[in-house]
DNA sequence: CTCCAAAGTCTACTCCAGTTGCGTTAAGTC
DNA sequence: GACTTAACGCAACTGGAGTAGACTTTGGAG
């Protein structure tokens, strides 16, 4: 990333990243400013502007870290249960008082900045690919027809959660999550998703 | 809304609304500023700030108008066809060079402003209710089990479109729309959505 | 150890979104 | 047709996001 990765630069980078996440968790995307991140991190404002450019840059960077850490793909032996687990994980993530605002901020930022949008796109591409494993296993067990598009099954399952959160602004319950997962399960079994 | 609805106030209101939509269509949400709307409409900046408050206020107002105009609910005689029509209508709406940016701006604005979020919520509540008509007819025909949640079927059908557009930032094709509609059709027939 | 340039700091500035206070216009009322 | 006041217009102001340029620190190479 930078030409001098060691020592001071690394400290600055980590301090800013941590401050960004903390601000996002407390204030959400609307309250995130370069100035506050600079103060909180102890790094000078101009430095943040030079290396990250803007609020969107801070978020794009934070997203890069988020993409690194893998998530637990369930393997219960049942396709329906696996899908339910995945969707519930998403739903609970947004309900979490710390992780929720941060995840929300990522989506909101991507709606405004091309950079953040690309980062988020890559993030979800990786997630879909990982989660599609449960579909591959279901195909092997004969629960789901061969040729089923695994990533698309995941999209179908989680989409209603995001739809409620970011489009219609309706509350989301665990029941909603389970229902969405089950609908995707039925559709996949019927061979509609290919 | 205002205590003096006639004459000048009405002209101001209409000019600002029209300018808002024009700016949104051309510039999108990112390029929408109160100042530009003021200039374009010929109304003074201060006046726009007083009556609409901010960019979000302009959008919340524009959404109010959008909610008024009803949309065509299909009645092809086939549940599957009806659902496909609805989802394709949504997909084509976003692909449209004029309506697309405006719709996108609504969603983006709602992600940041509580007022816009409430307006959008009401908007979609009305849409879901209207579109649920196709499910009611399907129940009458015996295509779908009684007790099926009509609004939820609509959510399931359109959610993947919005998910791709606003969350993962993936391209959306007509094929995606049809597949999503068909998946919702299968799930509804199976009695999973209630 | 020495050197040098990359990276960070600091101060002062610009610019523009949003506000304020006051004067002007015209909508609604009798 | 005169009066009241809601609503609009106007110009000057404020505050904070973002920039510019000179100066200082320090990581890394020889």
TrEMBL record, chains A, B:
DNA-binding region residue numbers: 33-52
All copies of domain HTH tetR-type, residue ranges: 10-70
InterPro entries per record: Homeodomain-like_sf, HTH-type_TetR-like_transc_reg, HTH_TetR, Tet_transcr_reg_TetR-rel_C_sf, TetR_C
Gene Ontology MF term list: DNA-binding transcription factor activity; transcription cis-regulatory region binding
UniProt keyword 4Fe-4S present: no
Keywords from the named record: DNA-binding, Transcription, Transcription regulation
Matching Pfam families: TetR_C_11, TetR_N
Protein name: AcrR family transcriptional regulator
Upper lineage: Bacteria, Bacillati, Actinomycetota, Actinomycetes, Streptosporangiales
């Amino acid at each position: 990333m930078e030409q001098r990765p060691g020592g001071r630069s690394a400290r600055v980078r980590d301090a800013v990243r941590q401050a960004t996440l903390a601000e996002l968790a407390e204030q959400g995307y609307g309250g995130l400013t370069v100035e506050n991140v600079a103060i909180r991190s102890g790094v000078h404002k101009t430095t943040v502007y030079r290396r990250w450019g803007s609020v969107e840059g801070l978020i794009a960077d934070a997203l890069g870290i988020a993409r690194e850490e893998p998530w637990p793909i369930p393997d219960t032996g049942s396709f329906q249960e696996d899908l339910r687990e995945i969707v519930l994980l998403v739903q609970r993530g947004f309900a979490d008082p710390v992780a929720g605002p941060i995840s929300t901020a990522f989506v909101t930022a991507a709606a405004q900045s091309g950079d953040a949008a690309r980062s988020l796109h890559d993030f979800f591409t990786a997630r879909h690919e990982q989660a599609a494993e449960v579909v591959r296993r279901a195909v092997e067990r004969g629960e789901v027809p061969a040729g089923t598009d695994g990533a698309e099954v995941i999209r179908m399952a989680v989409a209603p959660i995001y739809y409620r959160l970011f489009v219609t602004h309706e509350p989301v319950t665990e029941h909603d999550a389970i229902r969405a997962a089950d609908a995707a399960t039925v559709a996949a079994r019927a061979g509609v998703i290919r």
